Amino acid sequence: MRVERIARDKVRIFISYDDLEERGIDRDEIWHNGKKVQDLFWDMMETAYMEVGFEIAGPISVEAFTMPTEGVVVIVTRIPAIPGSSQDDDDADDDDEATLIHHRNPSYSSSIGTNLIYAYDDFDDLIAACHTLVEYDLESTLYRYKDMYELVVTDPLVSETYHTIASLMAEYGRMSSSTEAVLKEYGTEIIGENAVKSIVERFPLL
What domain range includes position 75? Predict the structure, then answer.
């Protein structure tokens, strides 16, 4: 399980399929609000609090969708309280928190304001990945970090596109454990803008 804070009131949590298997949760079961899934959710919230200081206070929105090989991405957003709402209303809502996991399958169309970051061992693999991505005209940056090529897609994508782009990136690389903040501070920026397009233009496939 990996937690990334992407805004003051929003975190992104990666749960691998190995994590699910260790908890006895099948891939399809993640979309049902059973006890094991609820236990997983509260473990996620505890991890988010311990690692990045994200604490539930009031209503939240939870969106989850699967990645082809990596696992499940969960985005948790704290929803600001409505002015004039009473404490009694908040207390009533607390009773429902155990069932507040509103899973969405990959067909929902809300915008996901997060980055996709994939790591590539070999530059040829990065080139191949970029050629599959270029038609989507993505905002992207390329870093070199710990002997890996780290490609960051910074477009705010709707989930359908997010799922597609992640699938294409995963064909040649793997989801990175780095955040963009880490790459900016400790990595070496190779291409600052339009990395995918630049690589395709400079390195045509033979």
Answer: 2-105
